[in-house]
Specification:
CATH topology: Rossmann fold
Strand order of the largest sheet: 1-2-4-3-7-8-9-10
Structural class: alpha/beta
Radius of gyration: 19 Å
Order of helices and strands: HEEEHHEEEHEHEEHEHH
CATH class: Alpha Beta
Number of domains: 1
Number of strands: 10
Helix content: 25-40%
CATH superfamily: Alpha/Beta hydrolase fold, catalytic domain
CATH architecture: 3-Layer(aba) Sandwich
Length: about 270
């Protein structure tokens, strides 16, 4: 009797896991596979449209930049972190928006970060006047194209990212400060001098884990200090017990999307 019960239990758990994986795959498929082509270069990205999307309406636009671990050319790995937040049925109903997840190629970077991984936390520096990386140029081109669409609310354009994508978020804000109404940055870092470009123009929420042994939390602290010195008023959340995966805590913040979608250029 016990063996039969255990077999049924294992079978039920297996079926539940398969069903959950199938549901996740179906949800991820709501992010359509897209390509942005500029001259000889291509940026792969995923796009989630609001339910009952209607081109005669206007919607907020959200850009999300993934971390270094999700780089590649499969146009899929970039959905590992963050996509569930925007796929949640409650969130989709409360905050109808166009959501973009581009993918950075394996051997490149969103920002101009010079990275030394010989010790941890990694050593980072951010040149001030260097040309944008090719992936960042393509992301800017994609965003310029999308914000030109009549169905995009140009006053409600947002960006967020984690780790490498957090660094990319700070950088795209410095290069396109008039494009975005608000941004959230998770375990990122950047050039403090460039915060003057966007400190008073973009509302910010910065997150980091105090135990982060990959990207030093002092990177976020210095960026927040620089934004304050340049007249900005950022939110800053430092999770005392979090390591590098502070995005789990950030995505669980009940007010994150409410805060984000409340922001407008006007």
């Amino acid at each position: 009797m016990t063996l039969q019960y255990n077999y049924i239990k294992i079978l039920f758990v297996s079926l539940f896991m398969l069903s959950s994986l199938s549901l996740l795959a179906q949800q991820e498929n709501l992010f359509t596979e897209e390509n942005f082509v500029h001259e000889t270069d291509t940026l792969k990205y995923r796009m989630l449209l609001p339910e009952n999307f209607d081109e005669s309406n206007q919607y907020p636009l959200v850009l999300f930049l993934h971390g270094a671990g999700e780089r590649g050319d499969d146009n899929k790995k970039q959905l590992v972190h963050g996509s569930k937040l925007f796929l949640d049925n409650t969130n989709r109903g409360a905050f109808p928006a166009i959501v973009i997840f581009p993918q950075c190629p394996k051997n490149s970077y969103w920002s101009n970060a010079e990275v030394d991984r010989s010790s941890y936390p990694i050593s980072l520096s951010f040149p001030k006047d260097k040309e944008a990386t090719k992936p960042m140029q393509l992301v800017i081109g994609l965003m310029q194209e999308l914000t030109g669409k009549d169905y995009v609310n140009k006053d409600k354009v947002y960006v967020g990212g984690l780790s490498m994508g957090g660094m990319g978020t700070f950088e795209i804000l410095s290069r396109q400060p008039d494009m975005f109404a608000a941004a959230f940055v998770i375990c990122g870092d950047g050039n403090t001098e460039l915060t003057k470009n966007y400190a008073t123009k973009v509302d910010l929420w910065v997150f980091h884990g105090a135990n982060d042994d990959v990207v030093d939390p002092r990177g976020s602290v210095k960026m927040v200090n620089a934004i304050l010195e340049n007249g900005g008023k950022p939110n800053f959340t430092l999770y005392a017990d979090d390591n590098h995966n502070s995005w789990d805590s950030a995505f669980a913040e009940p007010e994150l999307l409410t805060w984000l979608f409340s922001k407008s250029k006007n």
